[in-house]
C-alpha cells in the first residue's frame, strides 16, 4: 500500500504494521526519503542514524514472531540531541561536545529499543537547550516548516519541525521552561511536558535540574498519550524520578473522564493573558478556542494566579543558577572538546571560552553572580521563596477548577533573527509556559488554528495545565478540543 | 548597573575566557536581565513565613546501600575513549602545581 506520511498516527501505524499493510522497513524508507527531500531546507536533523533500516528490520522480525510487540514497535521517532543513545554521537547542540559519543544509554532509549521503536536520528536544538528559537545551536538554524523565514521555536525546534514536516512520526524533546510546548505551538503540533519526574532523565544532558523534563511531540494528542504511557515510570537511576505508585489512579481517572468530562471546570487566568506583549491575533484565537469549549458545554471560571507574573523572573534566577552548576563539568579534561593551556587553569579558561556559545556563557555568568555570597539572598533565596508562592497559587486554583487554559505563546512564530539580540524579548516568549516548570505540574500545547501573515499560515496553540499526575485530564481535554 | 570589573570577576570564577568586547556586551545584557528578575522580590511579600520556607518538593537524599557493583571495567573503555588526552588507561592533565 502507498504510505501517506501526512495522515499517520502512532495507533494507525501499529494497526497497519500488524495487519501487514506495510512493513517497518518500508515505513522507515518513506521517512528517510522525506528527510532527504526536506532536511536541507528545514534542518531539523543534525544526524540521521546509519542503522535506521537495520532497526526497522528488527522491528519487523518482532512483529513477524509476535514477540514482545508493544505500542511503539516499529514507530519511527526522532530524539533531541541531548538524549543519549549508547555508541551514537550526542552534542546538545554545542561545539564542546562535537565529537562526543555516548558511553551509555539513557533510560528512555533503552525503553524505546526494548519496544522496537525506530530511532531515526538526533534533532537540532539551542545549545544545551538554552533558547526559544533553535538559533543558538552551534550547528545551524532550524526553520519553521510553515514559513522558512521564521523560527520553529525552541529549544526543541528540531524535534517539533521534524514531526510537522513528516520527517518523523513522533519525537522527544526536553522542556525546562517551555522547550517542548513552545516549538510545538509554533510548528502546529502537540507537545506535552509531563509532571516533573514522570519520565526518567537518566542519560539526558542536564540544563536546569529542578525544572528539566523530557516530553513527547506528535501530530495528535493520542500520539503523545501513547508515548507518555509507554515511557513514564520510576527509574532507580534517576534520583528525581517519581515513585512507582504516583500514577496509581491513572486508569481509573481515564475511565471517569470518558464519562463525566463535561462536568469539569476550566480555569482562565484572565489577568495573566490580557496583558501587554500578547498579540491581538493570539488573544482572538484564544477567545475563539474558549468559545468552542463553552459551546461543547464546559463551565469556565476566571481564576487569579496573582503571582504568575513573577514566574518568569523566578525562572531566570533559578535556571541560570542551576546551569552554572551543571555546566561546571565541561573542563576539557574528562571528555568533550579541549584547548591546550600552559597549566590546568589556562586549559579550563581556553576550553570553556572557545567552545561554549554566547547564550550559554551569559547564563553561566548570571548563575555565578546569583549564587555568589553577596547576592545569593537577594536573588536565589528570593526566587526559591517566590517558587513556593507560585506553587501555592496553583494548589489553591486547582481546588476550584480542574485545568487551566491559556495561549501557549504570546505571539506566533517570529522571524529568524528578530529576537536573537534582545534576550529579554526572547525570554518573554516563554511567559505562559514557564509557570508549569516552576511548579512541576504537567501541561500540553494543542494546535488551535492559524493566523495569516504575509501569505503564510502560522500555527497557534493553546495550553492546558493540570495538577500533578493528571496528564489524563490533558489528554481528555486535548482530544476533545481536536475532535480526536 | 553592573561594573565591567564584576563581569571579569564572574568570568574568572566560572573559568571562562571572554574578550574585552564581550565584557561590554555582557555587562549591558546581564544588567538588564538582573533588573528584570529583581521583581521576584515583590512576589515574596504576599506569602507568610511558613509558606515561603515550606519544602514542597520534599527534598531528601536518595541513597542506596553500597553493594552489588557492576562488573569492574564494564564502562572503562567507552569512558576513556572520550578523554581528549590520555596515556594508556590514564587521562593526561597539564601540570597542576
Largest interface, chains and sizes: A-B, 65 and 50 residues
Amino-to-carboxy terminus distance of chain B? 38 Å
Low-confidence stretches of chain B: none
Strand order of the largest sheet of chain B: 1-2
Oligomeric description of these chains: heterodimer
Which sequence of SSEs, written as H and E, runs from N to C of chain A? HHEHEHEHEHEEHHEHHEHHHHEHHEEH
Gyration radius over CA of chain A? 21 Å
Order of helices and strands of chain B: HHHHHEE
**Which structural class best describes the helix and strand composition of chain B?**
mainly alpha
Q: What is the overall silhouette of chain B?
A: flat
How big a fraction of the residues of chain B is strand?
under 5%
Q: Tell me the overall shape of chain A.
A: globular
Overview in brief:
Chain A is of the alpha/beta class. Chain A is built from 17 helices and 11 strands.
List the helices and strands and how they pair.
The complex is a heterodimer of chains A (484) and B (97).
Chain A: H1 10-19, H2 24-42, E1 45-48, H3 52-65, E2 76-80, H4 107-115, E3 118-123, H5 157-164, E4 170-175, H6 181-187, E5 190-193, E6 213-218, H7 221-231, H8 250-260, E7 265-268, H9 270-273, H10 280-295, E8 299-302, H11 311-326, H12 344-355, H13 358-370, H14 377-400, E9 403-407, H15 423-428, H16 434-439, E10 443-453, E11 456-465, H17 471-481
Parallel strand pairs in A: 2-3, 2-4, 7-8, 7-9
Antiparallel strand pairs in A: 1-3, 4-6, 5-6, 5-10, 9-11, 10-11
Helix pairs in contact in A: 2-3, 5-6, 7-17, 8-17, 11-13, 11-14
Chain B: H1 4-13, H2 20-37, H3 40-43, H4 49-52, H5 76-81, E1 86-87, E2 90-91
Amino acid at each position: 500500500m502507498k504510505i501517506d506520511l501526512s495522515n499517520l498516527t502512532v495507533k494507525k501505524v501499529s494497526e497497519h504494521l500488524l495487519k501487514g499493510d506495510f512493513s517497518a522497513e518500508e515505513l522507515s524508507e518513506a521517512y528517510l526519503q522525506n528527510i532527504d527531500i526536506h532536511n536541507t531546507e528545514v534542518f531539523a536533523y543534525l544526524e540521521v542514524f546509519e542503522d535506521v533500516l537495520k532497526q526497522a528490520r528488527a522491528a519487523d522480525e518482532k512483529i513477524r514472531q509476535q514477540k514482545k510487540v508493544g505500542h511503539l514497535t516499529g514507530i519511527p521517532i526522532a530524539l533531541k540531541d541531548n538524549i543519549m543513545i549508547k555508541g551514537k554521537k550526542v552534542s546538545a547542540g554545542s561545539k564542546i561536545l562535537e565529537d562526543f559519543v555516548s558511553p551509555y544509554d539513557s533510560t528512555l532509549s533503552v525503553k524505546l529499543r526494548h519496544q522496537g521503536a525506530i530511532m531515526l536520528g538526533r534533532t537540532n536544538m539551542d545549545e544545551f537547550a538554552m533558547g526559544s528559537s533553535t538559533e543558538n545551536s552551534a550547528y545551524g538554524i532550524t526553520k519553521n516548516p510553515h514559513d522558512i523565514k521564521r523560527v520553529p521555536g525552541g529549544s526543541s525546534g528540531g524535534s517539533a519541525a521534524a514531526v510537522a514536516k513528516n520527517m518523523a512520526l513522533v519525537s522527544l524533546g526536553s522542556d525546562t521552561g517551555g522547550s517542548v510546548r513552545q516549538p510545538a505551538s509554533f510548528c502546529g503540533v502537540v507537545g506535552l511536558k509531563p509532571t516533573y519526574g514522570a519520565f526518567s532523565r537518566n542519560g539526558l544532558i542536564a540544563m536546569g535540574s529542578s525544572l528539566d523534563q523530557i516530553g513527547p511531540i506528535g501530530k495528535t494528542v493520542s500520539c503523545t498519550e501513547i508515548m507518555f504511557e509507554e515511557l513514564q515510570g520510576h527509574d532507580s537511576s534517576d534520583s528525581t524520578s517519581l515513585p512507582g505508585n504516583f500514577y496509581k489512579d491513572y486508569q481509573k481517572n481515564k475511565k471517569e473522564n470518558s464519562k463525566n468530562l463535561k462536568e469539569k471546570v476550566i480555569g482562565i487566568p484572565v489577568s495573566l493573558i490580557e496583558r501587554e506583549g500578547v498579540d491581538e491575533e493570539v488573544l482572538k484565537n484564544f477567545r475563539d478556542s474558549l468559545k468552542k469549549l463553552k459551546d461543547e458545554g464546559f463551565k469556565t471560571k476566571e481564576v487569579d494566579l496573582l503571582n504568575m507574573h513573577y514566574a518568569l523572573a523566578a525562572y531566570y534566577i533559578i535556571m541560570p543558577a542551576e546551569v552554572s552548576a551543571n555546566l561546571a563539568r565541561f573542563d576539557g579534561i574528562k571528555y568533550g572538546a579541549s584547548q591546550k593551556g600552559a597549566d590546568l587553569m589556562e586549559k579550563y579558561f581556553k576550553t570553556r571560552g572557545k567552545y561554549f556559545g554566547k547564550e550559554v556563557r551569559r547564563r553561566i555568568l548570571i548563575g555565578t553572580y546569583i549564587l555568589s555570597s553577596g547576592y545569593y539572598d537577594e536573588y536565589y533565596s528570593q526566587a526559591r521563596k517566590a517558587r513556593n508562592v507560585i506553587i501555592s497559587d496553583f494548589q489553591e486554583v486547582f481546588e476550584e477548577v480542574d485545568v487551566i487554559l491559556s495561549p501557549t505563546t504570546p505571539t506566533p512564530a517570529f522571524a529568524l533573527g528578530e529576537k536573537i539580540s534582545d534576550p529579554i524579548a526572547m525570554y518573554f516568549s516563554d511567559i505562559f509556559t514557564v509557570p508549569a516548570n516552576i511548579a512541576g505540574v504537567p501541561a500540553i500545547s494543542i494546535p488551535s488554528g492559524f493566523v495569516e501573515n504575509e501569505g503564510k499560515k502560522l500555527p497557534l496553540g493553546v495550553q492546558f495545565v493540570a495538577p500533578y499526575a493528571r496528564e489524563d485530564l490533558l489528554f481528555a481535554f486535548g482530544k476533545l478540543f481536536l475532535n480526536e | 548597573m553592573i561594573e565591567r570589573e564584576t563581569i571579569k570577576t564572574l568570568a574568572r570564577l566560572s573559568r571562562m575566557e571572554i574578550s574585552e568586547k564581550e565584557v561590554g556586551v555582557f555587562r549591558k545584557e546581564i544588567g538588564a536581565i538582573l533588573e528584570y528578575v529583581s521583581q521576584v522580590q515583590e512576589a515574596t511579600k504576599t506569602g507568610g513565613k511558613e509558606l515561603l520556607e515550606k519544602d514542597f518538593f520534599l527534598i531528601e537524599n536518595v541513597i542506596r546501600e553500597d553493594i552489588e557493583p557492576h562488573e569492574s571495567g564494564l564502562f572503562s573503555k567507552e569512558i576513556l575513549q572520550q578523554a581528549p588526552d590520555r596515556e594508556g588507561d590514564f587521562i593526561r592533565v597539564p601540570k597542576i602545581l
